[in-house]
């Protein structure tokens, strides 16, 4: 029995470390220690919903959904395609994003402010024109809000469906209010603070959205040609299927993403629950 327990524990530790290394990068352990162990006031106390949502494995599905949704704004997608290096360094981009989320959610207030200042400085340098000649700049509050509302909506919906801890509707309103603090610091002048406001703000962007060659290329990269070893691709494909099926119908239509008749109501969500539970298990501390 002890040998079996040790074997299971060893498998969990190896899986957890491999996954953490992919998501957090080589500096992950040091960043984690700094974020969680440094004393001092935080932007969000331990009781806040943002800690529940951002600390859950459902973020894997929510993050992929957010990237697909964000790609439908032609100015935002042009900035990503030209400046983010998501093709040449996709894991680096993921690691920087996950570290930013961790710092602003769990880190000290000073560390969170420093992280925001670094991101704002990067945004100020990102500017250009689309293939059609439309100017864009990453520091544009309107584009910043688009990125913010798509992330907030995606993380919320993924947690609502796959989160380990069920939250009340008032808690999801509080989650939107929590994320508004970070968005304001990044330069969004009036981010939504309730779920109803979030839904309304997303709907207001609809006339600006369209599929572009860049957005379709990003979707192919994320869904068909992910930078993963072959052994990891079946599990990733199931995560991706859950991200796709959670998108609104109009977004799936614009991106030309497939439908899965007979599977979307039960079978695909079941795989999402299994995978998020497996991620939690692998990344939980050993007893």
TrEMBL record:
Q: Name one Pfam family in it.
A: MPAB_Lcp_cat
Identify the EC number(s). 1.-.-.-
Give, as one word, the top-level EC class.
Answer: oxidoreductase
* Molecular function (Gene Ontology), one example: oxidoreductase activity
Domain (ER-bound oxygenase mpaB/mpaB'/Rubber oxygenase catalytic): give its ranges.
Answer: 53-281
Q: Does the keyword Oxidoreductase apply?
A: yes
Record has Oxidoreductase as a keyword: yes
Matching InterPro entries, A to Z?
A: MPAB/Lcp_cat_dom
Keyword line? Oxidoreductase
Name of the protein = Oxygenase MpaB family protein
């Amino acid at each position: 029995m002890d040998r079996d327990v040790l074997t299971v524990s060893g498998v969990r530790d190896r899986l957890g470390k491999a996954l953490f290394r992919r998501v957090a990068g080589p500096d992950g352990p040091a960043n984690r220690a700094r974020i969680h162990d440094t004393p001092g006031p935080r932007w969000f106390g331990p009781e806040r919903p943002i800690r529940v949502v951002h600390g859950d494995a459902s973020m894997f599905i929510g993050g992929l959904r957010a990237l697909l949704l964000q790609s439908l704004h032609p100015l935002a997608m042009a900035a990503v395609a030209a400046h983010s290096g998501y093709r040449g360094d996709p894991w680096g981009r993921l690691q920087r994003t996950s570290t930013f989320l961790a710092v602003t959610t769990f880190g000290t207030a000073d560390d969170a402010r420093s992280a925001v200042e670094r991101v704002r400085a990067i945004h100020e340098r990102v500017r250009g024109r689309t293939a059609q000649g439309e100017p864009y700049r990453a520091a544009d509050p309107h584009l910043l809000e688009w990125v913010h509302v798509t992330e907030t909506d995606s993380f919320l919906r993924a947690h609502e469906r796959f989160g380990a801890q069920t939250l009340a509707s008032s808690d999801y309103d509080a989650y939107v209010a929590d994320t508004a603090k970070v968005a304001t610091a990044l330069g969004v002048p009036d981010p939504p603070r309730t779920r109803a406001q979030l839904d309304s703000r997303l709907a207001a962007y609809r006339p600006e959205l369209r599929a572009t060659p860049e957005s379709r290329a990003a979707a192919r990269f994320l869904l068909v040609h992910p930078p993963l070893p072959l052994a990891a691709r079946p599990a990733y494909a199931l995560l991706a299927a859950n991200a796709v099926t959670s998108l609104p119908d109009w977004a799936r239509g614009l991106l030309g993403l497939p439908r899965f008749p007979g599977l979307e109501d039960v079978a695909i969500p079941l795989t999402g629950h299994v995978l998020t539970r497996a991620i939690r298990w692998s990344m939980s501390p050993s007893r």
